[in-house]
Amino acid sequence: MPFSSHEADRVRAVWQDLDLPGIVDVHTHFMPRPVMDKVWSYFDSAGPLVGREWPITYRADEDVRVSTLREFGIRAYSSLVYPHKPNMAEWLNGWANDFAANHEDCLHTATFYPEESATTYVSRAIQAGTQVFKSHIQVGDYSPMDSLLDGVWSQIADSQVPVIIHCGSGPAPGRHTGPEPVRALLHRFPSLPLIIAHMGMPEYAAFLDLAGEYPNVHLDTTMAFTDFAEEDAPFPADLRSRLVDAGDRILFGSDFPNIPYGYTHALEVVTDLGFDDDWQRNVLYRNAARLFGLDRPSK
Length: 299
Prior knowledge:
By secondary structure, the chain is α/β, with parallel strands linked by helices. Helices cover 44% and strands 9% of the residues. The protein is built from 13 helices and eight strands. The chain has helices at 5-17, 33-44, 62-72, 89-102, 118-127, 137-140, 150-159, 179-188, 204-213, 227-232, 240-245, 263-271, 277-292; strands at residues 23-25, 74-77, 109-111, 132-136, 163-166, 194-196, 218-220, 250-251. The radius of gyration is 18 Å and the shape is globular.
């Protein structure tokens, strides 16, 4: 078992003390087993996009990982899949569609890649009820401004299905990472509902600026503020006050299961920032519940 009952008690105590129905974790990974095994192998080898030792704390079979999140009281989570080459995204979307159908607490997740078929399969994903897309600029090694994605971004802007986008230059910069490609994208599609993964680590200030300029831009807390991240990409102390102003657009994310520390640490570094209970309620649950319509009555 990758967690203890004591750990589950600690996680549950956080949201129970805030009188919440649970936590929404917008940034978790469930993938086809061969893909997940390759991802774990890459982390194990400290590959160039990782650059340091990175043990996987919650390495376990899929059903155990699902059970772990449920024991923690995670009300909703995602199955963030992402391709690193053409002709992979549509297959991943089919898997993620089946996963969501069999796990009602998982947000229906999909992804895309700059390829001729992207507009068509993204359209199908939206029609099938996708609730969140994943775009990984670093691993996919593509520009968000690639013309093959024009039809994708247009549909996403129209549908307002949020996109969790890894576009910051952490843990290692890519050819297309950083705030400027995203700024260019938002200039062209200003209504895009983007969720900047990892608070835009390490370009925190620039991505907070974008959230201030574009009302549909959110940020997730994934790995930010943790001891692990603070070693190489510390969150600047002089930006802390801006987190209060952006409190209605910050969402909790953990990167479960691919984190090199316990889930309680990912959670407690957020609650220990020193902000009031209402800010914590928004970040841990309310903002995501509103964005994904989780508290709307079932039809």
